[in-house]
Amino acid sequence: MTIGIITQARATSTRLPAKVLLTAGGKSYLHHHLERLTRTGLPVIVATTTNPDDEPIVELSTELGFPVYRGSELDVLSRFAGAIREHELTGVVRVTSDCPLIDPAVVTEGVERYRAENAGNVYVSNCLTRTYPRGMDYEVFSAARLLQADEVATLPVDREHVTTYLHQNRAGDMRLVNVPWDGGDGSTYRLTLDTEDDRKLLGTLIEEFSAERLDCAELVALMDAHPELAALNAHVEQKKLNE
Predict the structure, then answer these.
(1) How far apart (Å, rounded) are the C-alpha atoms in residues 212 and 53?
(2) Helix, strand, coil share (%) of the chain residues, nearest 5
(3) Is the pTM value of this prediction over 0.85?
């Protein structure tokens, strides 16, 4: 079984343009993200778009030694399908590049659970019921199932959000497995990069607390100990699937 991580990235984000190319601690947020994923030991593929605005993402990823697949900007499902075919994956971990502090051990736990289930119709995630902070999200699923979704999915939400065809069980036989955090409940915290206030928090965490060296439990403990940090982006609402 060849399992690979596919992370989606683009420069034309609406709330905070080119957000993954912004920097903290002397590195872009994309660089932090990819470095942490490398620690899983799995191959990591950057799925970006053919839009010329994404050339800096291609250049940075290539410079860091990560393969890049370029596909549709809006039909992200087809972009993932193309990356799967090009790299001949049988299993996929989907993450998003706006998670610069994603914990590699959290991702590894999800992959291990997926392997243990040993079924092509299983979808494993840690955010079906949220206990982790935003920014630690992953999904693990069969490459064959996503390729099937790419062939038959017609709803715009399925084309844009990649995995809704799977976790909404449109095929009728998917088995959904949630992996909760055994460290408690960090679901109120945002460690993801979507707005300027998210950037203020992440920049502070990295530049003042060396957050790039911390795991999920340590990050949550830090936020618990410093409520003024959590307050920086506590008001930010996550965009809904149809937005």
Answers:
(1) 27
(2) 40, 15, 40
(3) yes
Query: Does residue 63 sit in helix, strand or coil?
Result: helix
Strand partners, 46: 7, 68
Per DSSP bridges, beta strands 139-142 and 122-125 are antiparallel
φ, ψ of residue 71 to 5 degrees: the values are: -150, -155
C-alpha neighbours within 13 Å on the C-beta side of residue 102: 34
Torsions phi, psi for 232 (to 5 deg)? -60, -35
Q: 136 with 99: CB under 8 angstroms?
A: yes
* Tens place of pLDDT per residue across the chain (243 aa): 799 999 999 999 888 999 999 999 999 999 999 999 999 999 999 999 999 999 999 999 999 999 999 999 999 999 999 999 999 999 999 999 999 999 999 999 999 999 999 899 999 999 999 999 999 999 999 999 999 999 999 999 999 999 999 999 999 999 999 999 998 899 999 999 999 999 999 999 999 999 999 999 999 999 999 999 999 999 998 766 554
Pick the CATH number of 3-188 from 3.90.550.10, 3.30.420.40, 3.40.50.720, 3.40.250.10: 3.90.550.10
Would you call 21 helix, strand, or coil by DSSP?
helix
Residue with the two structure tokens 């950037």:
199
Contact 226, 218 (CB under 8 A): no
